Amino acid sequence: MRKPILLLSILIFAALLISCPGTSATPTKPPEKVESTSISKPVSNDFPEDCPVTLPGKILFEAPEPFSSTPPWPNFFWYGSEHLWTVLPTEGSWSHLPLNPEGYTQKILWWSDLFSLKDEPEPALVVTGKRLDEEAPPLKTYGATNAFADDIGEAMLTGVDFPTHGCWEVTGQYKKAELSFVVWIAR
Fold first, then answer.
1. Taking the CB of the first residue and of the last residue of the chain, which one, N or C, has fewer CB atoms within 10 A?
2. Are the C-beta atoms of residues 171 and 178 closer than 8 Å to each other?
3. What pairs with residue 111 in β-bridges?
4. CB of 172 within 8 A of CB of 127?
5. Half-sphere exposure of 177 (CA within 13 A, CB side)
6. How far apart are CA 45 and CA 91, in angstroms?
7. Residue 17, SS3?
8. Strand ranges (DSSP E) for 9-124?
9. Strand, coil or helix: what is 97?
10. d(CA 104, CA 114)
């Protein structure tokens, strides 16, 4: 029996291989915003105190039906609102990311109750990012595509490159929703 994470990795890789460039969409209304929040960082994390990483708060977001109320992976939490959410590491850091000439590569899954895979194979999701602790080139994004697996349901997928390690704010904008979070990119 295959492990769900292996299957997810294969599906994400396949989706990136067949993805087409994403399209930008200008929202017709001001987007609903969810700002990054932070709490005291656990002492085991290896990032500076002044990096306000997004960590699980006292009130956790639960994905709406038909999604699971908790993410399918341990040590991760849902973050956002029903119109746009993602899954983040409980430690606030992404480490051991592949390093290529463009930077540290990561794939980010996004969900929305406004998204329909059959109606929108190339989601109008726009992702941007900036380093907060030092000057750096902006986050490089590769548009959005779709993803599906039994454990994650219908989702949107973006590939990104963080040009440097450090404290990064990432913002996703989809239809009438906007979501920002802060993550530490480890070397």
1. N
2. yes
3. 85
4. yes
5. 20
6. 7
7. helix
8. 32-34, 76-81, 84-89, 93-94, 99-100, 103-111
9. coil
10. 30
Distance from C-alpha of 71 to C-alpha of 155, rounded to nearest angstrom: 13
Contact yes or no for 110/156 (Cβ under 8 A): yes
Q: Are 135 and 166 in contact (CB under 8 A)?
A: no
Cα 127 to Cα 125: distance, rounded to the nearest angstrom: 7
CA–CA distance, 50 with 65 (Å, rounded to integer): 36
- If residue 156 lies in a helix (H) or strand (E), which one and from where to where? strand 153-162
- Residue 24: Cβ-neighbour burial (10 angstroms; 0-12, 13-18, 19+): exposed
Asked if residues 85 and 111 have their Cβ atoms less than 8 Å apart, the reply is yes
Amino acid symbol at 26: T
Bridge-partner residues for 99, per DSSP?
104
To 5 degrees, how large is the angle CA 71–CA 69–CA 59?
A: 95
Phi/psi for 179 (5° steps) reads: -135, 130
* Cis ω before 21 (30° cut-off from 0): no
C-alpha dist (Å) from residue 161 to 13, 27, 86, 168, 174: 15, 25, 17, 11, 20
Helices (H), the chain: 4-18
pLDDT in tens, 124-175: 999 999 999 999 999 999 999 999 998 889 999 999 999 999 999 999 999 9
